[in-house]
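Minutes, project check-in

Agenda point 3 was the complex the collaborators sent over. CS summarized: four entities, 1384 residues total, and the question is how they sit relative to each other. Sequences were read into the notes so everyone works from the same version.
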Amino acid sequence: MEELTVGLIGMGEMGRIHAQNLATLPHVRLLAVASRREDARSAAATSLNVSRLYADYEALLEDDDVEAVVIAANTSDHAELVIAAAQAGKAIFCEKPAALTLAEMDRVLSAVRAADVPFQIGFMRRFDPPYARAKRQIEAGAIGRPVSFLGISRDPYLPAPEDKSALARGNLFLDLGIHDYDLACWLVGDQVVQVYAVGGALVYPQLRDFGDLDNAQVTLRFANGAIGSINLSRNARYGYDVRTEVLGSEGALRIGDVRQTALDLLTRDGVHYGTYPWYQERFAAAYRQELCQFVAWVQGQAEPAIAGEEGRTALAIALAATESFRTGQPVELDEGSHIKRHRIAP
Amino acid sequence: MEELTVGLIGMGEMGRIHAQNLATLPHVRLLAVASRREDARSAAATSLNVSRLYADYEALLEDDDVEAVVIAANTSDHAELVIAAAQAGKAIFCEKPAALTLAEMDRVLSAVRAADVPFQIGFMRRFDPPYARAKRQIEAGAIGRPVSFLGISRDPYLPAPEDKSALARGNLFLDLGIHDYDLACWLVGDQVVQVYAVGGALVYPQLRDFGDLDNAQVTLRFANGAIGSINLSRNARYGYDVRTEVLGSEGALRIGDVRQTALDLLTRDGVHYGTYPWYQERFAAAYRQELCQFVAWVQGQAEPAIAGEEGRTALAIALAATESFRTGQPVELDEGSHIKRHRIAP
Amino acid sequence: MEELTVGLIGMGEMGRIHAQNLATLPHVRLLAVASRREDARSAAATSLNVSRLYADYEALLEDDDVEAVVIAANTSDHAELVIAAAQAGKAIFCEKPAALTLAEMDRVLSAVRAADVPFQIGFMRRFDPPYARAKRQIEAGAIGRPVSFLGISRDPYLPAPEDKSALARGNLFLDLGIHDYDLACWLVGDQVVQVYAVGGALVYPQLRDFGDLDNAQVTLRFANGAIGSINLSRNARYGYDVRTEVLGSEGALRIGDVRQTALDLLTRDGVHYGTYPWYQERFAAAYRQELCQFVAWVQGQAEPAIAGEEGRTALAIALAATESFRTGQPVELDEGSHIKRHRIAP
Amino acid sequence: MEELTVGLIGMGEMGRIHAQNLATLPHVRLLAVASRREDARSAAATSLNVSRLYADYEALLEDDDVEAVVIAANTSDHAELVIAAAQAGKAIFCEKPAALTLAEMDRVLSAVRAADVPFQIGFMRRFDPPYARAKRQIEAGAIGRPVSFLGISRDPYLPAPEDKSALARGNLFLDLGIHDYDLACWLVGDQVVQVYAVGGALVYPQLRDFGDLDNAQVTLRFANGAIGSINLSRNARYGYDVRTEVLGSEGALRIGDVRQTALDLLTRDGVHYGTYPWYQERFAAAYRQELCQFVAWVQGQAEPAIAGEEGRTALAIALAATESFRTGQPVELDEGSHIKRHRIAP
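CS then shared the predicted structure for the full assembly.
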């Protein structure tokens, strides 16, 4: 198996995670990095042996030796970057979400289809070992027919206020919730037809200035009658907390744990154990595995795992949740929000 | 401390649980039982040494030696029984819910107030050791200000269809959910102003004939902005499953577990442990403790733990959830649905 | 089923636990209490409605209305009391150990056999729900043939030095370890042929003055080749800790947990949960259940659960462990230390 | 930081684990592999891009571009290989144990000292995140003074009988137990003065032909009086099971879990979760981290983590356990078996 030459666009927090994985994955060569920041470029050169450093992404896309790109720039730039990369004929891995509006997302999907290039969105949770196993068990019938989905996604703290990119990532429903919408559709195996959301800026009132919130509860109704409920928060002081349950007609699955390592400290105060500090630690294996999958797909060794349209579906739910939160009413998802599910295995 | 003489009305499943506890609690004498069923009466006589057996409740209420009554008859008879017991001057413990409509509940509360008798509703979960501790920890500030409540209540199977009393107990939102509404208000420490509910008869379609359902998700909004979410199901094949989480501004509490005993079996198939088969096993200590509390209150040894109006609040939420399910719209709770919370410790 | 009239001898810590259970068990009447302490007798009268109060045990044994006795006096008096009770024709429940030497124990067993009265030793752990289930699972073949037994028994602190009865209860190998020897023989289903012990007064050096120790490791060899290991400590600051594992040829069982209630507190420090403070909380159900079993046996409703000879076996192991600790050598158990195991179900 | 060029000797199961890590670690170049098997060499060339392939280790040691070697050949060849590598001036990482007798080990240590090269033994458990944290917590005083060590190491099955190298790896006390002896000394922070062992070929009687066994219990006494107990087995049908507890004067630590992923399946049979199938999955991070540490040491970026003499200590305990098992007596460790402990942090 030959090496796939990859170019990385963006060297922020997510970019550095992907860079580290690309530099050490088998069958991959991290050939080029594009970043506006000089220090990020030189770090890539010295610590990861990246040989081609670009100050802007256009130059990277013009590099014919780059076969595939990993896009980890600011969320607000994702759509533009994917379209340009598709037009340049690159295979594309893009962090979630690939766009901030449905219209933008439709342009993204058109560009990808027109170029006929591989396109994978960074729904890394699907590649986390317990989630991947849960999916297989559901497909094997272990819990019967899924009827109820419960998701918890809680960040331990607010993105730093000076981090402008944080706001550009979208509100709580989009930035944090999008993984849960994707998991819900994927694990329940059906499409969402209605969304209802409540919440508020209950701990960080300053978020109201941006129309954002810190705690929310999103209710989903699926076409087949199944129900879903997603709890989002940015004040899980105790650690990064992502857990999921799927209740079926014959059993249930519980996925995820706040516990980071198998170590208990027992003292006069009782038993104590530590939690995942942040998403990088919780999903380290998943971030690595999603790139393995992408590389294998591009090299013809694996089926695609995530359809681009699934990114549109999750985005549509996030926007519907936002609208429901604003109006106080349940929001129906129309037909165009959905894709026909085709069987794709992680 | 003298013995309190108690009469028990109703010897169905719940009645037998209370009978067993009343027969073995200190400071209590289970003097009388009223049941229409002859076999139930003779069982009380022989296995519990109950000396006064009544075929109807009126005779029991006329027995002047009975100081307090425990009402565990059919739910549809609760209101009538409480009113009669109040008029007879008895201290009253009544299984939840004390009424099936708000009008009926108001008559119950009026009768109790007029008679000025102790009146406690069977919200036994408050007396379960982990719930009682959680309440104390919240009051001690361990998690800061509660902002999000998550409740799961799942029965392992449907009440037998031939059990007519099951249907008379109210629908899923009332019969199963009422404990969670009470816990939500009690643990969050605020009143609910809006209710939204989705669900369906997803596993037992025959429930549709009775307007009932087997899976539901209820969303609560509190006056202070806090949010709540309650997952109800009647198809937790794996066992009786009641769990609760309260997320606060500074931490969180997780209450309850499906595991019944501290025993793991490890085989080629991995690790296996057993669950609570049903509510009696899960809440055995709580059922006992709520009666201890009631007895102590009647005997002037303790403050009241649950106000009658709290039963009205939980009922109002159940009815609002039912209405929301029917109309598909969020339902506001008006002022009259609520009580001013007064501090009462379990 | 008639009531069994029971007399209780001894109202120390263990006596009060048994008194509370005897006062509230069905089919039992706690008729009499013998205690040298006047305050203990009057407490029994007022809080438990015990009507016959004796200052010495002889008077209680002469009371013909007392059918059965529960012996919870100082350990050093157990043997004398059992012999006297047997001669008085009472059914006997005796706290462990029934004697402090094998010679004494043999006299106890002779007296019981001569009188042909029921005699049960307080190995309550067998009646703890997870232990009882573990036994049934082993007998059902769930783990194949047991080959390795691991026991942990740790007290959270030392008995108070002013508590003279503590020293009279025997050293660490006897007072704390005896339950584990019994569990080991019961769960492995074979007899111990060799004992080796190490340990020391590592945390409370004052124990050396009494020839006692606070931490020990006891190794057992069974006749069939199986091995056992028991860890004893008196400085489990974090709580009362009793856990057991049995490894078999086809699987394993893990029994017990330090966690007391299903409640997690999650804060900036991670996850915290509480432990059992002391044995009463951990084995509350077991203390109750062992008396139920005893009563049922005396009343002809159940088979005996524990043979008197099993008490001798556990004592022999404790004494061998003490000898091994002193000499530094493994100690063989001769034939006379053992009983032929007969199948008795809890 | 420059790349360290590494040569790997041996491409069996352990060799392949190290090869995979060396091929993807930053700052490392896996330049050469020595293996007698042609297919192993060509696999290294094609899947790991190793450019220099040697059929025997002498050629690899003569390659001046190889700065460090990782020795993962048959255990019986370790000593010879380390000595040769030291004489060739290479930095040396060697799988445990580095020798099968103390005399051999002394020659190894002399050779390493004479050559003054870095030498690290593959006690990977020290680098497993929960073990590394536990060590830091003990050093920070979290549990007071360690007084009792409990170790469990259980393999799920016997090495295949046709695997001759399995027998050459040493018996149960050496091959499986050596990690626990090292952990015990490292975590308790003292030296072992006495060893006692019992056990047998209880599940695989064919092991008796090789003087080997499948279940054992090893008791340790430390110079400061602390005690240790290690349970070894090769029939943990339920999975790979490595757990450790350290009880201190003020608290305790529990390390490790059989659970592999945070996924519960809940069905009519209760709750089920999966276990680690084998050591590679359990210690994947540790195998990677120990090489990171070795590389950092060789490159002058870190202190040595494990002294060569610590490998001798663990070997001495394994041999003493074997002797104790044969003789049935406790075995004293003489002075020469030990090293003066110097503080080295992982």
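Noted in discussion: The mean pLDDT of chain A is 93.
Follow-up: revisit at the next meeting once the mutant set is ready.
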